[in-house]
Amino acid sequence: MSVTLDTYLVTQEDLSAGRTTTEIVDAAIAGGIDIVQVREKHRSAADQLAITRELREPTADAGVALVVNDRVDVAVAAEADGVHLGDDDLPVAPARDQLGEDAIIGRSVSTVAAAATAEENGADYLGVGAVYATSSKDVDADEQAIGLDTLTEIAEAVDIPIVGIGGVTPGRAADVVEAGADGVAVISAITAADDPEDATRALAEAVRSGKRRRADDPAVEGSA
Ligand SMILES: Cc1ncc(COP(=O)(O)OP(=O)(O)O)c(N)n1
Ligand SMILES: Cc1nc(C(=O)O)sc1CCOP(=O)(O)O
Ligand SMILES: [Mg+2]
């Protein structure tokens, strides 16, 4: 399954300054978001299902992919386009068995070895991070931001697309893409923004700028 990953919104309603996830997603759609992941970890399965169902029609109408964090069962019930899985979630292969060949399955990684394994296991794309430090996700004390050099190593090690996640802002997105990411995934840069629509546009412009910079880089094979 091929999917556009330039700008990727991961939802988290408690960072949205009182706005609902649906309001944030509507604004992101207006700003040109490519893919949305429902990640409401502190909500019940029933609530996650209700939110995902509410987003099904507006995302489909806009041609925006809709995936669910962690929960294959919620993705199936809401007829979402796929799931995003990490170390604590169902492995990719059994998720694929349940969701089918056309589903989008993303996998979180932070090392080259894990990226190669996820690709072998059939992931469609990788979420690579945390690129920069972030307060949006609780991480173990020994988990550090991986930085741009590790992101580049991962991008060079796999053939599937990767998105950089963790502390990404419009001001940093071009660097992340120039380093090898196909797109950027964010929570707070859109969700906590005063104007989530404008923030999405700014992110998309930064991704385009990063792609132009990479294409112009003589160190990159096949570029100018
Ligand atoms: C696009 C993207 N990349 C990485 C993650 C992190 O997933 P995971 O490691 O499973 O952690 P949780 O998000 O489940 O807390 C992601 N969600 N999305
Ligand atoms: C959900 C998530 N996963 C990460 C990882 O490193 O796998 S970092 C992260 C949080 C991203 O939020 P923000 O854009 O606000 O930094
Ligand atoms: Mg997870």
UniProtKB/TrEMBL annotation:
Mg(2+) binds at residues 70, 89. Condenses 4-methyl-5-(beta-hydroxyethyl)thiazole monophosphate (THZ-P) and 2-methyl-4-amino-5-hydroxymethyl pyrimidine pyrophosphate (HMP-PP) to form thiamine monophosphate (TMP). Pfam families: TMP-TENI. This is Thiamine-phosphate synthase. Pathway: Cofactor biosynthesis; thiamine diphosphate biosynthesis; thiamine phosphate from 4-amino-2-methyl-5-diphosphomethylpyrimidine and 4-methyl-5-(2-phosphoethyl)-thiazole: step 1/1. Keywords: Magnesium, Metal-binding, Thiamine biosynthesis, Transferase. Residues 8-190 form the Thiamine phosphate synthase/TenI domain. InterPro entries: Aldolase_TIM (IPR013785), ThiamineP_synth_sf (IPR036206), ThiamineP_synth_TenI (IPR022998), TMP_synthase (IPR034291).
